[in-house]
Amino acid sequence: KAGVTQTPRYLIKTRGQQVTLSCSPISGHRSVSWYQQTPGQGLQFLFEYFSETQRNKGNFPGRFSGRQFSNSRSEMNVSTLELGDSALYLCASSLELQGGGETQYFGPGTRLLVL
Amino acid sequence: AQSVTQLGSHVSVSEGALVLLRCNYSSSVPPYLFWYVQYPNQGLQLLLKYTTGATLVKGINGFEAEFKKSETSFHLTKPSAHMSDAAEYFCAVSPYSGAGSYQLTFGKGTKLSVIP
Questions:
Q1: Which residue from A43, A49, B65, B95 lies 20 to 30 Å from A56 (Cα-Cα)?
Q2: What single-letter DSSP state applies at residue A25?
């Protein structure tokens, strides 16, 4: 079974540009969550999508947006990039199990460097 | 509002010794609690989680954690450390809004070193 795939793995952008990151969840998983990981702020929740709808959103500015497609693949977009957006962006896919419980798997992340 | 405090950014234990990683949380609603592990150059992996029911939760790789409401704690333990346990561990809390939906707030992480 293929794991969570994130593309690209590495990205270099300059301030003011925009970027789109992609996440393909495990087949059958309908929930996709995005996280930002930086040395200073640690791991922070960005947003979660389920069946093409945003279910939860963290405390990030409107420059950060996302969407989910009918095949559960998700994209995250950051507009007007700032130096502080340099981070590892992680995607996780989840599946709620019958009878309770849940499985969750993270992708390897996309490392974004803003110059 | 919710927050997580992990006591000790670095913890060192000898191989075979008890592993104890501390996590305290605050939450305005009954929390769901998680422990994640991040091995060097690898992605995050869910170790275990507490949702409802039994307060002692067993996870993968021999780890377990106990939810203590009175102490607002969810400490992670393992009876005997292995070299392969060296990693960074993150505690997280989430309110639960149904149907497997979580909004995680993470602690700063604890790096575990295992000394041969």
A1: B65
A2: P
Rounded to a whole number of angstroms, the distance from the CA of B38 to the nearest CA of chain A is: 10
Contact A45 B108 (CB under 8 A): no
> Which residues have CB under 8 Å from B19's CB, separation 6+?
B11, B13, B63, B76, B77, B78, B79, B81, B85, B112
Distant-in-sequence, close-in-space partners of A40: CB < 8 Å, separation ≥ 6: none
Measured CA to CA, the distance from residue B96 to residue B103 in angstroms comes to 8
Cβ separation B106–A44 shorter than 8 A:
yes
Which helix H or strand E contains A44, and what residues bound it? strand A42-50
H/E stretch holding B112: strand B110-115
pLDDT band at B100 (very low <50, low <70, confident <90, very high): low
Q: Is B91 on the interface with A (CB under 8 A)?
A: no
Neighbours of A104 (CB within 10 A): 23
The tens digit of pLDDT for each residue in B4-52 reads: 999 999 999 999 999 999 999 998 777 889 999 998 877 788 899 888 7
Instruction: Please tell me if residue B42 touches chain A, with a CB cutoff of 8 Å.
Output: yes
